[in-house]
Amino acid sequence: MAPIKKIAKLTSVAMLLSAGSPAVGNSAPLIVVHCDAEQQAQVCIALVQALTAQWPDYRISLSPAPDAQAGLTVRYVEKHRADDWLSGYLSWRLADGPSGEGPVIEYSVMDRALTSNDLTPYAVQLVRSTKLPL
After folding, report:
1. Left (φ > 0), alpha (ψ -120 to 50) or beta: where does 51 sit?
2. What CATH number corresponds to the domain at position 68?
3. How far is residue 11 CA from its own chain's centroid?
4. Residues 48, 59, 23, 10: what is their CA dihedral angle, to the nearest 10 degrees?
5. Nearest to residue 71, comparing CAs of 97, 51, 89?
6. Could you read off the pLDDT of 53-71 as tens digits, one per residue?
7. Parallel, antiparallel, or unpaired for β 85-94 and 59-61?
């Protein structure tokens, strides 16, 4: 799939996720999630879901409005990737400057390739193990 099509697909999924999430007012703090659109689209979607479950009172977005001011930016940093194995960590930065990183989390399956369903527990563990300043 061409990079532009992948970005369009990621944006479409992000809009579906935000449409299906509980209504949170525009005054709720904004968390922006950044991932490499080509390689990490499914991980990014799983991260948005995990962050939404952990902090339902926040607005969480993959692609915020251009004028949106994120209170927190979270980035997935991939260390290794294979068909049956992933490792990576979350890095974060507050709008006023402080930043940090979580531990590297590894996730693997045996005798098959990872699927999008496998990414949910991986994303939950990434979120739970990272001390986000929320």
Report:
1. alpha
2. 3.40.50
3. 13
4. -40
5. 97
6. 999 999 999 877 777 788 9
7. unpaired
If pLDDT is split at 50, 70 and 90, which confidence band does 83 have? very high
The strand pairing partners of 73, in sequence order, are 32, 93
Q: Mean pLDDT for the chain?
A: 83
pLDDT per residue over 12-36, tens digit each? 444 444 434 444 556 788 999 988 7
Beta strands 99-101; 59-61: pairing state: unpaired
Helix axes 41-54, 116-129, angle to 10 degrees: 50
Domain-located, residue 42: yes
Domain encompassing residue 42: 3-21+29-129
Report the domain count for the chain: 1
Looking at this protein, which amino acid is placed at residue 120? T
With respect to residue 134, please indicate whether it lies within any of the assigned structural domains.
no
User: Which amino acid appears at position 73 of this protein?
Assistant: T
